[in-house]
Design brief:
The protein is α+β, with helices and mostly antiparallel strands. It is built from seven helices and six strands, in the order H-H-H-E-E-E-H-H-H-H-E-E-E. It has two domains: 135 residues, Metalloproteases ("zincins"), catalytic domain (Zincin-like, 2-Layer Sandwich); 42 residues, Rubrerythrin, domain 2, CATH 2.20.28.
């Protein structure tokens, strides 16, 4: 009964209740309101400072786990990371972005290369990089094309096709022919 009361009163929802409910009843969605609450609690727990801006999911992010917006101080998180890796990965991404957030507001080194940033990452246990997403584009193997000069027999490996009527060997100016891909 107590859990139901906490769930019905959003003011009482804590990070631990969200995690408990998600794993206990197999909830596999996290909305912006829950993300905001989770970010505020992680900020207080690990940084001992409040998070006073917005944290939202941005489904248009493709290759990054999240980003801290320097202009408006908001944090955007890639929803695909929650779908593929779950709450623990998102928590790590939030902590990483909160490092940027707090250091920037304190006018300290907030960039990835700065010593202040690296030190704070270690202190709070935030990852420096997030796990790569499993996307069809990432899993696709790059095709390689092989060409050989008919005069000097030099081989050239390229990713893109070469117009054999237009281009010649860079070594001897001989004609090129395409080899079979093995």
């Amino acid at each position: 009964m107590g859990i139901v009361y906490l769930l019905l009163n959003p003011g009482y929802i804590s990070l631990y209740v969200i995690v408990f409910v998600m794993f206990r009843w197999g909830v596999n969605e996290l909305d912006n309101e829950q993300l905001q609450k989770m970010t505020e609690e992680l900020s207080l727990k690990f940084f001992h400072k409040p998070f006073r801006h917005k944290a939202i999911f941005n489904k248009r992010l493709r290759t990054i786990g999240g980003r801290y917006m320097l202009g408006n101080h908001n944090i955007e998180i890639n929803y695909r990371y929650f779908e593929q890796y779950g709450l623990e990965e998102v928590e790590g991404i939030i902590k990483h972005e909160l490092c940027h957030y707090h250091l920037h507001l304190e006018k300290k080194g907030y960039k990835h290369r700065d010593a202040d940033f690296k030190r704070l990452l270690k202190e709070v246990g935030a990852p420096r990089f997030c796990t790569p997403l499993n996307t069809p584009a990432a899993n696709k193997q790059q095709k390689k094309l092989c060409y050989q000069c008919t005069s000097c027999h030099a081989k050239f490996v390229r990713k893109r096709t070469v117009d054999l009527n237009k281009y010649v060997c860079g070594i001897c100016k001989g004609k090129l022919k395409r080899l079979k891909i093995e």
